[in-house]
Amino acid sequence: MSLDDLRTSSSESSPLSRKKQSLSWLLPTGLISGFLLIFGLLFGPRLIPALAVETAPVITIRSGESDAPTEKTLPASNSPEDGKGPLVFQASGWIEPDPFITYVPTLINGVIEEVHALEGQTVKQGDLLATLVDEDALLDLQTAERNFESLQKQIIAHCTGFELIEADITSNRKKIAALATLVAETEDTLSRLKELSSGTVSQQEIVQARLAHERQQAKLAEAEAEIPRLLAQKAQLSAGKDAMEAKLAVLETDRDRAQLALDRTRISAPIDGVVLHLHAAPGKKRMLNMDDPKSATIVELYAPEKLQARIDVPLNEAASLSVGQAVELVSDLLPDRTFTGQVTRITGQADLQRNTLQAKVEIANPDPRLRPEMLVRAKFFASGTSQNSTSTASGRLSLYVPESALVNESEVWVVSSDSRAQKRSITLGQATREDHRLVLEGLRSGESVILPPHDQLEEGTRVEVSNPSQ
Questions:
Q1: Model's pTM, two decimal places?
Q2: How far apart are CA 12 and CA 321, in angstroms?
Q3: In this predicted structure, what is the pLDDT of residue 387?
Q4: Domain residues of the chain, as ranges?
């Protein structure tokens, strides 16, 4: 191939190469364009300059702190004729046992054999609620009883050794007495032989008499040495008896524990009450020491004569709560009946999501038809006997907005949580205080309203607070 051929082939392929090179810029350009598009969607609104506005906070005042007239006046029926103060606020809640649910668990692991109570059933203290399969418990009790009886008989057989030893001791003491007599007799014989004149008796007779005396002394010493041995055997038997009796006490405990396990296969009601929840069914396992806190629970009971209501009180009304405060409750189940009660406890922590504080209200006259978790409506009355004193201590919270912030008699501009202008419809009252109007509905405590001018504001406009004091 010549140089001309190479030039020719190069010139023929150059248009295709130039075309590829011309398209190579599309990929980075597309990536950059996509990045700019995403960046604009995410942060574009923040790049737009925010509109500078002046704001004013919504003022929260307790109605008792002001001499200004309130929008709502309490009716005459709320006067403290029956010991209750005026109606302060209303809130909703639920019925629950007072002070808590009674959980009835099984105290041993087992399988439910039979259930004797159902949900909603009234039971008396001691009534049988459920039984567990008890074959193993019966066998364990029989084994424990037989071990106990066997050791009892061993102790009885062991103690017969005391009688044998006592008999041996008595016999040996009599033998000692007899041998002592023989010793005295041989000693007398020997002494008499020694006192005779020489030649009267042979020397052999004297030696035999002396040996007989020594022989009797040896037998006496042997008999006397037998007494300590017998006493030691008696002490050994006594120690053995003590050890066996200690073991018998252990077996007695095992027997009692086996009896207790058998008794616990029958679960009875600890109180008079109503079955709230049933956690047992034939064939269902009930186990202790499990991660599930209700793994051993058979039933949940509550006493129908001891009920309370847990009421979610809005935080803007919580300042009016106090222990002992009079409350009236109404349920949809019994709409024509009013239940009286009083606040017994105020929980220590508020609910952040609901913006409420929970209060416990004891029901003085609960109806047996009331059930836990039924909805109730509660009316809280001011504490004390004087309406003037209670209005200052526990008056309702009132919201006031600057009159200059009003677009008209029913709207204001509010700064939302994401710093945007939002037009809000409100309901105003007639009361005024230092160029502020009473707001009945539409605003919340702590919100900020936008002061004039409003001509550049639109719904959703991003705003920046630029108050002179800031």
A1: 0.56
A2: 95
A3: 42
A4: 3-47, 51-70+396-465, 76-99+306-394, 106-129+268-300, 136-263
